[in-house]
Amino acid sequence: MKTPHGKQTETVHFVQFFIRYRFAFLLTVVMLFVVAIGIGCVTVILNTSHKKRLSEIDAISFKLTSALNKSASVADSVDSDDSKNLLGGVPKNEADEKAKSDMRSIALGELKPFASAKNIVGIRGNMLKAELFFQNKQWAEARDAWLLAASIQPKAYTARLAWYNAAVCCEELGDTDGALSYYAKAANDENFLLKTHAIANMGRIKDESGDYEGAALHYTQLADRYPDDLWAELAQSRLIALRAEKRIQ
Hints:
By secondary structure, this protein is mainly α. Helices cover 71% and strands 0% of the residues.
């Protein structure tokens, strides 16, 4: 959306910035899961059976990553002028994405026995399933897997990670009520790494829907309670813009 002078409005610029960084966290889920175990955020005893099954899940993840990297290397080695796949005349990038999606689907099948566990194995299995569904743009399946991971141990730190990502999936599905609900659950923990980002996303959703007063409540919460945070600085800027536009008092 452009102004008559060709410049983006403050509102559009703000919203685009939030959307750009909305998904950044998804790439760090596995690392944070490992850290959570290391500092005791997942309150379980890792017995021999759990360790063995977690290792098997990691093996599935490693095998998939290796296959995807190999596929990418092969694709890069093909002449860039050859825009068609030799088999069937399918555009190369489309064929590559289909191949990657098929690889992830195979891994999803291998994860089924682990995802049904009601312990740390189930948490890890469902978190990995959710990531793969998300990469395949299967938003509803990804959301459900995140929520199942959270339900196994709702008090664990990993549940906050899962609720946050379930909210992102809800946004992809156009379910703003669900997104607001899960961002709120994730933010209901002062120690959650992405607490301020979750609050900012809640403000953005209400802002986009035209609920400026509702958005201002979240922006004000950020500005007042976390003044040195990046998201608080952005929220403060948005509050100034909303007042200048006479959308709030």
